[in-house]
Design goal:
The chain is mainly α. The chain is built from 13 helices and no strands.
C-alpha cells in the first residue's frame, strides 16, 4: 500500500486525497523519492535502500555504544540489531515503517550521547529534527523523544559534562525541542500548501482509535516476542541490575 500511495505522488497526486493510508507523510515521500529516481514499483531498489538503511542504523548503534562503553560493545550491539530487527517473520525484511523510524531515532540518540561540555550544544537541534522525522515516518516513534528529554535534565548528565549551571540544561532541552518542532512545522507547511493538512491529521492521528482490545492475543504475541528476543531481555535485566556500575559517569 505504501508503494501505491508513493506512485500516486510520483504521478502528481496527493497522499490522503488521491490515495489513502494511515501512515505519516514522510514515509510516502521517502518511497516516492526512491521510485522517482529508480522507476515506479522498482522492488529491487526498495530492497537495496532497505539494506543500506539497516546498515546505517547498525552504524549508529555502534557509534552510541562505542561512545558510552567500548568498540566491542558497539560491534555486538550492531550485530544484535542485524539479527533481531527482522526477528521471526519474513515480513520484517520489508522496507516498513518500523525499519524506517529506527534510523533517525538511533542517530538522534548518537548525537545526544556524544561527549561535549558545550553550554549550548547546537547539535541537539538536528537531533530533535531527526526525532521529528522519525515521528513523521511512524507515529509511535515520538515516544523516543521523551526519555532523551529526561536524560538531558538528569543531574548525572550535568555532572558528566561539567555543566555548572541549570540554565545550560534548559537551553539544551530547548534546542532539542526546537529541532523536533521545526521538523513537524516544515511538514505541516508542506501539507497545508498541498491542501491536505486536515486530511493528513485525520488519517494519521484521529483515525487510530481502538474500539476493541484483544487482551489474549496481545499477551500471546508479547510473550512470543519476549521469547524470540530472550538474549536482549537478559541483557536488559543485567543492565538494570548492575546499573550503578555500568552507567556510572554516563
Amino acid at each position: 500500500m505504501y508503494s501505491v500511495v508513493a506512485n500516486e505522488i510520483v504521478d502528481g497526486g496527493r497522499p490522503y486525497a488521491d490515495a489513502v493510508e494511515r501512515k505519516p507523510p514522510l514515509l510516502f515521500w521517502t518511497y516516492a523519492a526512491i521510485f522517482k529516481v529508480a522507476g515506479k514499483f522498482n522492488w529491487k531498489a526498495l530492497h537495496i535502500v532497505a539494506l543500506v538503511w539497516t546498515l546505517c542504523a547498525m552504524a549508529g548503534l555502534y557509534v552510541i555504544c562505542r561512545e558510552l562503553f567500548d568498540r566491542n560493545t558497539g560491534l555486538i550491539a550492531a550485530f544484535f540489531y542485524g539479527v533481531f530487527q527482522p526477528w521471526l517473520t519474513w515480513r520484517n525484511l520489508s522496507f516498513d515503517a518500523e525499519m524506517l523510524m529506527n534510523l533517525p531515532i538511533i542517530w538522534a540518540w548518537a548525537i545526544a550521547f556524544r561527549r561535549s561540555s558545550s553550554r549550548l550544544r547546537p547539535e541537539l537541534f538536528p537531533a530533535g529534527a531527526l526525532l521529528g522525522a522519525a515521528f513523521l515516518l511512524k507515529q509511535p516513534a515520538a515516544i523516543a523523544a521523551v526519555p532523551l528529554g529526561i536524560y538531558l535534565l538528569l543531574p548525572s548528565y550535568r555532572a558528566s559534562r561539567s555543566l555548572a549551571r541549570t540554565n545550560s540544561i534548559i537551553i539544551q532541552a530547548a534546542m532539542l525541542t526546537a529541532g523536533f518542532s521545526a521538523a513537524l512545522g516544515l511538514a505541516t507547511i508542506v501539507l497545508w500548501k498541498q491542501g491536505i493538512l486536515r486530511d493528513a491529521f485525520y488519517w494519521t492521528i484521529a483515525n487510530h482509535d481502538v474500539p476493541h482490545v484483544f487482551w489474549q492475543k496481545g499477551i500471546v504475541h508479547t510473550l512470543t516476542f519476549l521469547g524470540a528476543c530472550l538474549p536482549l531481555v537478559i541483557g536488559a535485566i543485567m543492565t538494570c541490575r548492575d546499573k550503578d556500575e555500568i552507567w556510572a559517569g554516563k
